[in-house]
Specification:
- By secondary structure, this protein is of the alpha+beta class.
- The chain is built from 30 helices and 23 strands.
- Helices cover 40% and strands 18% of the residues.
- It has a 7-stranded mixed beta sheet with strand order 12-13-14-18-15-17-16, sandwiched between helices. Strands 1-2-6-3-5-4 form a 6-stranded mixed beta sheet, with helices on both faces. The protein has a 5-stranded mixed beta sheet with strand order 7-11-8-10-9, sandwiched between helices.
- A hairpin with a 6-residue loop joins strand 9 and strand 10.
- Helix 1 packs across helix 7 and helix 17 crosses helix 23.
- The longest helix is centred in the middle third of the chain and has 25 residues.
- The N terminus is likely disordered.
C-alpha cells in the first residue's frame, strides 16, 4: 500500500534505516468493507508458520529481490543483550552452514552483487530485515540466493572466534553514532518514550554489553527469535510465481515450528497526565531543534477497511495543508524557522500514534519557532483550512497516485518488496495501485473541509504532551526555561488570531511567446537520438523511451558558467547564486509557484556551474507544456526579490552557524581549504563575513547575462513523450528564447592541485572518533578515456580489498571506500581517494594497511577472481542502466559536453570484459605515486 502519511523527518542517525508504518486509532464500530489484497501477489503460510509473499515482476529484467524479514529487533533484548539484535544481523554475514567466513560476500560479489550498495540489512526496534537482490540469468544463482536466506534464518555459525572479531566492527559502528546528538538523545528520550521499553533499547546497544556479552547471550537471541512464526520470505522479480514458491517450500518447510516458543511481547507506552518538557543543550550541538508531540491515548490499530482508508486520506490532506502553510512561513523574509514539518503517525512504539511538530531553528530562535508551530495549530483549530487549500492538496495527492498508477507495469521489484515487508510487520494493506487509484478517485470528492478541520480537535490536548528543545550550550545564547515554554502554550491559547488568507493567482504564463521554427532535423538511427536545430540557434536532442510510462527527464547547458566571472565576481556571487531561484518567476513568488503547480509534476532547476550554465528538471507527458513554460520563464522572467534573498540568507546563516561544531564537518572544511590554498577563486565555507561581502544584485545581473543567449544552449529530453508534441513545444517555448549568437566557451581558470607528499592533521571533538582520507591528485598531460575507466575500476577493486583487510581482518572499521577519476577538461586533473572512519588509536596502523594493499596492486596486480568481481558488478549495473532514463540523458549530454562519440556506449560491455589486471596495475603506478596527501581528524 502506498504510504499516505508523511513519515517522520526526525530519524536519528544512530538508528538503522527504520521503515515506519502509520497505524491509526479507528472507530471500532465501522462496518465498511475490508480492503482487498492485490491478486498479483501470492501470500501464503508454510506448515511451520512462516509467511511468504511472491510476485512476478519484470522490472528490472532477470533479477529477483529477496528479503528475509524477522519480526524481532532490539525491543526484545534482555538487559544482557543490549545491541545483540543488531549484532546478530552482522553475524549472518560471517559464516553459516553452507558459507564459511567471507564465502557469502565473496560469492555474491562474484555474480555482481555489491556489498552495501546491493546486499544489505537493517535492524530496528521491532524487526530485522535482510536485503538480497539476485540475478536470475541461471538456476544456480537463484538456488544460491535461497540457500543464503535459509542460512540466515536457521543456520548461522556463530563461532566464538567470529563473534569476537565482529565485536570490533560493531563497536566501530557504535563509535560513528557518538557525539552531541546522541548525548542529547539520552537526556530527552526518557520523556519522549515515557516509561517505555523503547527508551532503553536503541538498536546499536551499549558499549559495555558489546564488549562483554557472552557467546551464549547472542546464540540465545538467535534461537529465541529467529523462528518460522516470526519470519517472512519476500520474493519479487522476473521469474514465475510457481518457481519461487517451490524454492520457498524446498528451503523453509523442512524446519519445524518452535515447540515452546518464547512469548513475543508487544510493548506499549503508558499515558501521562502532565506535559513533559526536556530542554537539552550541548557545547558541540550543531543545530537547534524544537519537537512537539501530542501522543494518542488509545491503542492504534491497522488500516483494514475502506473507512479506515478514507481516514488515512483525510489525515494526508490535513498534513499537506498545514505543511504548505509552514513552508510559506519558511519562505518569508524573516522566517521563524529554517525548516518545519508536521504529521500524524506512530513513534518508535507503534502501539500509539502522535500528532508531531518539528522545526530546525537558529540558535536563538527556538521560542519563536515553538510559538509559530503552536500558533498555526491554534489557527487551524479556530478557523480550519480554506477550500482552495483542500483542492490543492487533493490535486497533489491525486496526481501522485495517478503517476504511480501509470507506472504500474514499470514499478521496480524493490518497491513491491518494501510494501510486503510492511504488510507482514504492521498489517499495512496491499491492495495494489489499481485499487488504490480507483478508490482515491471515488473517495476524495467525499472528503469535506469539515472532515479535515475536525481532526485537530482530537490531536491537541494538554495531557500526553511532550516538548523537546535541543541546541548548543553557549555563553552568549540565553537558555530557555520550562516556565517560558509552558507560558507560551497558555499565551497562544488566549491570543487574538486572524484566519489564514491567500490571494487569487492567475495562469503561470498569461501570454504565449511567438513561435519559432525548427531549421534542421538529424536522426541517429543507431541509438534512436534526434537532434533539432531551432531558428534561434539553440539545439535540442531527444530520445524516446518506454522505460517509464510517466517520466520525461530534461537537461541543458551552455559553455561559460563561472569560468567567465572575474575572481572578484566569483567571491561576490557564489553564495548568492544559490538563492536566485528563491525569488520565483514572472511576478510569482516561490510560494505562489508551489500553489500554481500543485497537482502537477513539474520540476525545473537553473544553475550556474564552473564551466557552464545549466538547466535541468523532469515532468510527465500530461504536464509537458507547463514544464516548457516554466523553463522559458527561468530564461526570461526570473524575479528580483531582496526579501526572498534575505530569507534564504537568514536560513542558511542560521543553519550553518553551528554546523562547524560537528567534527566531521569541521574536518571537511579544513581539508577543503588546505587543498584549495593556491586557488584564488575558492569560496569555501559560507561564513558570516563571506555573506556580508556577497552581492545579490551582482549575482542576479550575472544570471541574466548567462541566460541571455539561447543560441549556444543545447537541450536534452529523454523519456516517454509524443514526438510531434515535443517538437511543437520546442518551437513555441525554446525557439522563442532570446539569442545574441555570442558563441561563448569556457575559460581555463583551473588551479593546479597540491604537489608532493603532504599531511594535514585536524583536531576537533571530544569523542574517540577519527577520520582518514588518503588523497592522490595531480594533472595528466593527456586525457585517455580508458585510463579514466581503469582508475574508477581500481577504486572499486581496492574497496573490496580494503573491506577484507581493514574490516574483516583487522576489525578496525565499519566502512571504507576508494574511488578515482580523471577530468577531461582544462588541466586534466586526476583524483583518487581512500576514506574511512576509525578509532584514533588505529589511524596510523590502518593507514599503513590501506597503503600496503595499494602497493600490492602496484607490484603484483590483482587476482583474476577479484577482477571478475568488479567486472560482473559493472556488467550487471550497465545492463540495468541501459533501461533507465537517467543513464541515457547523462550519456547523451556528457558526450556533447566533453566532445566525445556517444556511440562509445555500444562498446561498454566489451570494454568491461577486456579489463585486465595489467590495466589496473599500470594506472596505479602511473597516477598513485608522486603526489599524496594523508589527512586525518583526531579528537582534541
Amino acid at each position: 500500500m502506498k504510504k499516505l502519511l508523511i513519515a517522520s523527518v526526525f530519524i536519528f542517525a544512530i538508528i538503522s534505516c527504520n521503515s515506519i508504518s502509520n497505524p491509526k486509532t479507528k472507530n471500532q464500530t465501522a462496518t465498511s468493507s475490508a480492503i482487498p489484497t492485490d491478486t498479483d501477489v501470492k501470500k501464503g503460510t508454510l506448515s511451520n508458520g512462516m509467511t511468504y509473499y511472491i510476485r512476478l515482476n519484470p522490472k528490472p529484467e532477470q533479477k529477483v529481490e529477496l528479503r528475509l524479514v524477522v519480526k524481532a529487533g532490539s525491543v526484545l533484548e534482555t538487559d544482557k543483550q543490549l545491541g545483540l539484535a543488531h549484532f546478530m544481523e552482522h553475524m549472518n554475514f560471517n559464516g553459516s552452514k553452507n558459507f564459511n567466513k567471507n564465502e557469502l560476500v565473496d560469492y555474491l560479489q562474484s555474480i555482481g552483487v555489491k556489498f552495501g550498495a546491493h546486499l544489505n540489512a537493517y535492524t530496528s526496534f521491532d524487526e530485522t530485515v535482510y536485503i538480497l537482490p539476485i540475478p536470475t540469468d541461471n538456476d544456480e544463482k537463484l538456488e544460491k540466493g535461497f540457500q543464503i536466506l535459509e542460512d540466515w534464518a536457521f543456520n548461522a555459525s556463530l563461532t566464538d572466534e567470529e563473534i569476537d572479531k565482529e565485536r570490533g566492527v560493531v563497536l566501530e559502528e557504535y563509535r560513528l553514532g557518538l557525539g552531541a546528538d546522541k548525548r542529547m538523545l539520552k537526556e530527552y528520550l526518557p520523556k519522549l518514550m515515557y516509561n517505555s521499553r523503547y527508551a532503553e533499547r536503541l538498536p546499536i546497544g551499549t558499549k559495555e554489553v558489546l564488549e562483554n556479552f557472552t557467546y551464549e547471550d547472542l546464540r540465545s537471541f538467535y534461537k529465541d527469535w529467529y523462528r518460522p512464526d516470526l519470519m517472512a520470505i519476500v520474493a519479487v522479480g522476473d521469474i514465475s510465481v510457481d518457481v519461487l514458491e517451490e524454492k520457498i517450500k524446498q528451503h523453509f518447510n523442512k524446519y519445524p515450528a518452535a515447540k515452546h516458543p518464547k512469548q513475543r511481547t508487544e510493548y506499549t507506552s503508558p499515558n501521562h497526565k502532565e506535559t513533559l518538557v526536556s530542554i537539552v543543550t550541548d557545547p558541540k550541538a550543531s543545530r537547534s531543534t524544537v519537537q512537539l508531540y501530542y501522543k494518542g491515548k488509545e491503542k492504534a490499530t491497522p488500516t483494514k477497511t475502506v473507512n479506515d482508508y478514507k481516514e488515512d486520506l483525510t489525515i494526508n490532506l490535513f498534513n499537506t495543508m498545514l505543511n504548505n502553510r509552514l513552508e510559506e512561513l519558511k519562505n518569508s523574509e524573516n522566517p521563524p524557522f529554517i525548516y518545519a514539518g508536521t504529521w500524524y503517525g506512530n513513534l518508535w512504539d507503534k502501539s500509539k500514534n502522535a500528532y508531531q511538530n518539528y522545526a530546525i531553528t537558529s540558535e536563538t530562535g527556538q521560542l519563536e519557532a515553538f510559538k509559530t508551530l503552536i500558533t498555526e495549530n491554534e489557527r487551524v483549530l479556530r478557523y480550519g483550512f480554506l477550500e482552495s487549500e483542500l483542492n490543492r492538496a487533493k490535486n497533489a495527492l491525486l496526481n501522485a497516485m495517478e503517476r504511480a498508477f501509470n507506472e504500474k507495469d514499470k514499478t521496480e521489484s524493490s518497491r513491491h518488496a518494501s510494501e510486503y515487508i510492511q504488510n507482514f510487520l504492521n498489517q499495512e494493506p496491499i491492495p495494489g495501485i489499481a485499487w488504490e487509484f480507483t478508490t482515491i478517485k471515488e473517495l476524495l470528492p467525499k472528503i469535506t473541509l469539515d472532515n479535515c478541520n475536525s481532526l485537530i480537535a482530537n490531536y491537541i490536548h494538554d495531557d500526553n504532551r511532550v516538548l523537546i528543545f535541543t541546541g548548543p550550550d553557549k555563553k552568549e545564547v540565553k537558555k530557555i526555561s520550562e516556565n517560558e515554554v509552558l507560558n507560551l502554550l497558555k499565551e497562544v491559547k488566549n491570543t487574538t488570531l486572524k484566519p489564514y488568507e491567500e490571494k487569487n493567482l492567475g495562469a503561470l504564463m498569461s501570454t504565449i511567446p511567438t513561435t519559432g521554427k525548427i531549421t534542421s532535423i538529424a536522426k541517429d538511427t543507431i541509438l534512436n537520438i534526434t537532434k533539432l536545430t531551432l531558428s534561434n540557434g539553440a539545439k535540442v536532442s531527444y530520445k524516446q523511451t518506454n522505460f517509464k510510462n510517466n517520466q520525461i527527464l530534461f537537461n541543458g547547458y551552455s559553455y561559460g558558467g563561472l569560468s567567465l566571472y572575474t575572481d572578484e565576481e566569483i567571491l561576490k556571487t557564489s553564495l548568492a547564486n544559490r538563492a536566485l531561484t528563491e525569488a520565483g518567476v514572472n511576478g510569482y513568488s516561490k510560494t505562489d509557484l508551489q500553489k500554481i503547480l500543485a497537482g502537477k509534476s513539474v520540476r525545473v532547476y537553473p544553475s550556474i556551474g564552473g564551466l557552464s550554465e545549466t538547466i535541468n528538471g523532469s515532468t510527465t507527458p500530461k504536464d509537458l507544456e507547463t514544464f516548457f513554460q516554466l523553463t522559458h520563464l527561468y530564461f526570461t522572467k526570473l524575479n528580483y526579490d531582496e526579501s526572498a534573498y534575505n530569507s534564504y540568507k537568514n536560513k542558511q546563516a542560521a543553519y550553518l552557524k553551528n554546523a562547524i561544531s560537528r567534527p566531521s564537518t569541521y574536518f571537511s572544511i579544513e581539508l577543503d581549504n588546505f587543498l584549495n590554498q593556491n586557488n584564488p577563486r575558492h569560496v569555501g565555507f559560507p561564513t558570516e563575513e563571506k555573506w556580508n561581502k556577497t552581492s545579490y544584485q551582482l549575482a542576479y545581473q550575472k544570471y541574466l547575462e548567462r541566460f541571455a543567449d539561447a543560441s549556444d544552449f543545447h537541450f536534452y529530453f529523454v523519456g516517454n513523450f509524443d514526438e510531434e508534441t515535443l517538437q511543437n513545444y520546442c518551437k513555441t517555448y525554446l525557439a522563442s528564447l532570446p539569442s545574441t549568437y555570442s558563441k561563448e566557451n569556457y575559460k581555463n581558470v583551473s588551479s593546479k592541485p597540491l604537489e608532493g607528499i603532504l599531511e594535514k592533521h585536524v583536531t576537533k571533538g571530544d569523542e574517540p572518533k577519527s577520520l582518514v582520507k588518503i588523497i592522490f591528485s595531480g594533472t595528466s598531460e593527456n586525457y585517455l578515456p580508458n585510463e579514466n575507466y581503469y582508475l574508477k575500476s581500481l577504486g572499486e577493486l581496492l574497496t573490496i580489498k580494503l573491506v577484507e583487510q581493514l574490516r574483516e581482518e583487522e576489525s578496525g572499521v565499519y566502512g571504507v571506500s576508494a574511488r578515482g577519476n580523471i577530468h577531461k577538461l582544462l588541466l586534466k586533473k586526476y583524483n583518487f581517494t581512500i576514506s574511512f572512519p576509525c578509532g584514533p588509536e588505529n589511524v596510523e596502523k590502518l593507514s599503513e594497511k590501506a597503503l600496503a594493499e595499494l602497493e600490492k596492486i602496484k607490484k603484483n596486480g590483482v587476482s583474476e577472481k577479484d577482477l571478475n568481481k568488479i567486472k560482473e558488478t559493472q556488467l550487471l549495473e550497465h545492463k540495468e542502466a541501459l533501461k533507465q532514463n537517467n543513464f541515457w540523458i547523462g550519456t547523451i549530454k556528457n558526450a556533447d559536453f566533453l566532445k566525445t562519440d556517444v556511440h562509445h556506449i555500444l562498446n561498454k560491455e566489451d570494454k568491461i570484459k577486456s579489463l585486465t589486471s595489467d590495466h589496473l596495475k599500470k594506472v596505479a603506478n602511473k597516477y598513485l605515486t608522486k603526489n599524496r596527501i594523508i589527512a586525518t581528524l583526531k579528537p582534541e
